[in-house]
Amino acid sequence: MALAMTGDGGPGSFSGEAWTRNAAACDIIGAMPFNAELAAGTLPRETFQHYIVQDAHYLIGFGRALSLAAAKAPEPDGIVQFSRAAQDAIVVERALHGGFFRDYGIGPESFAATPLTPACDHYVSYLLATAYAEPFEVVCAALLPCFWIYKAVGDDIFARAAAGNPYRAWIDTYAGEEFAEAVAGMIAATDRAALTASAGTRERMHRAFTQATRLEWMFWDSAYRDAGWPV
Predict the structure, then answer these.
(1) Rounded to two decimals, what is the model's pTM?
(2) Considering the domain 30-225 in this protein, what is its CATH number?
(3) Least crowded by CB within 10 Å, which of 91, 124, 128, 204?
(4) What sign does the CA torsion over 146, 119, 127, 214 have?
């Protein structure tokens, strides 16, 4: 099953090149059992509950990484864009998780007491390390897959979701117009950053995009298998 590319900066753009380089991995993500069962509405409740708790933990780290990107943005518009994205990661998407948390009886104490899984910890640590240590261009490339792949998966699932799907709120969020605008803005910001990047920096951007794409796969795979720490 091929995930549709939801937009890029055109021929020769960094985003177009990055999606092409990682198209096979994105297609694997689209066909993962987690996403197939989520679309069908047959994903076990406990599996989605495990995922949504880890995703809420992830979004805290993601918001911090976006805030660091805002601090490194070379232009005022970039500062505003990434600061708003950080706010949305914490406030807007947390509202989505909060609805499921209420349905599942997950309170603040039980959430805080749930440790990050190896996959979640790895992903958050990678983004934060990149946001601290790498230049703005590479940070953008590392952050982009979370936006873009979620949009592609959301659109794909929306197109084939079963009627009465219990995960409709999740599907509608990531297939929605508001999220589409945020994704388009992130693609454009990354492409702008790549325009003035050296060949070496651009290749580091590609490595960061690929690594984050791998970690997207790991996150969903871990959630499906309920993979925790072995010791």
Answers:
(1) 0.93
(2) 1.20.910.10
(3) 91
(4) negative
